[in-house]
Amino acid sequence: MTIHVSRCSFGYRRRDLVLEDLTLDLPSGCVVLLGPNGAGKSTLLALLASARRPGSGRVTLDDLDTRRRGHLKQYRRQVGWLPQQVTPVPGLRVREQAAYAGWLKGLSRRDAWDGSLEAIKQVGLGELAERSAAQLSGGQLRRLGIAQTLVHSARVVLMDEPTAGLDPTQRRVFRALLDDLKDRADFVVSTHQTEDLAHSYDSVILLDQGRVLFEGATASFLDLAPGQVAQEHRAEAAYAGLVKEEM
Ligand SMILES: Nc1ncnc2c1ncn2[C@@H]1O[C@H](COP(=O)(O)OP(=O)(O)OP(=O)(O)O)[C@@H](O)[C@H]1O
C-alpha cells in the first residue's frame, strides 16, 4: 500500500461534493484510474498530490498527513505529480527545467542539477538536454514532466491523462517508458484509454460520480467482462458493464 485515503470528502463549492466519504488504499505497483468525464479523477489526483485539501477526511503516506502543514514538504518530496498540462518554464532548457523541479521539491541546487541529467536520459530526452523546453512537442513535454518527478526520486508518481492527445506511436512510447520505470516508483495513472490495460497496469480503480465502483487487480477487472468478449475488448466491456454505458 502506498497512499491511504480515509473518509475524504471534497467539493469545489459547499454542498456540491465531487468526492464523498471516499476511502481507498492505493496499492503498490502500477494503478490505472478510470472513469467517465467528470467522475472526479483529476480531483482525486489533486488531493493525492496535496495540491488540494479534503474538506473532511485524511490523505496519508505512512505517517505523513497532508492536513498537517509540517508534513507537507516531506509528503510532496515523496509524491510526484504530472498534471494534465506540463508547461514549459519560459527561458529554461530541458535539463534546467528538470533540475528546477527538483530544486522546488527541496533538493540542493547541486543535487538537482546532478540528478536532472539522469532523469531526462531515463525518459529519452538526453539528446534534447540543451533545447529550450518551449520547443518540445506535446509528447516530449509529458516525458519532461515525468523526468521532473524522477529528479527528486518520488516514491509515488501521479499522472493525469498522460496520453491524452498523443498519437498512437507516442502512446506506445509512453507505455514502454512506464514499463521501464516500474521499478523506480509506484504509479497512479488516470486515463480514458483502456487498450493494453492487462499489460501496463497491476490494478484498476474505477470512479464514477465521486464513488469507487471497482478497486482491485487488473485480472479481476477483466474477468467482469462477459465470457464471450475477446481479450482485446475485455477492459472496455468490463468498464461499460460497471458504468452502465452503451457499448
Ligand atoms: N476548478 C473547478 N471548479 C469547480 N468545479 C470543478 C473544478 N474542477 C472540476 N470541477 C468539477 O468537479 C467534477 C469532477 O471533475 P474532475 O475534473 O475531477 O473529473 P475527471 O474525472 O477528471 O473528468 P475528465 O475525465 O473529464 O478529466 C466535475 O463536475 C467538474 O465540473
UniProtKB/TrEMBL annotation:
SMART domains: AAA. It comes from the Bacteria. Gene3D superfamilies: P-loop containing nucleotide triphosphate hydrolases (3.40.50.300). The keyword Signal does not apply. GO terms for molecular function: ATP binding; ATP hydrolysis activity. Residues 3-234 form the ABC transporter domain. Keywords: ATP-binding, Nucleotide-binding, Transport. The keyword Ribonucleoprotein does not apply. Coiled coil: none annotated. SUPFAM superfamilies: P-loop containing nucleoside triphosphate hydrolases. PANTHER family: ABC TRANSPORTER ATP-BINDING PROTEIN ALBC-RELATED (PTHR42939:SF1). This is ATP-binding cassette domain-containing protein. It comes from Streptomyces guryensis.
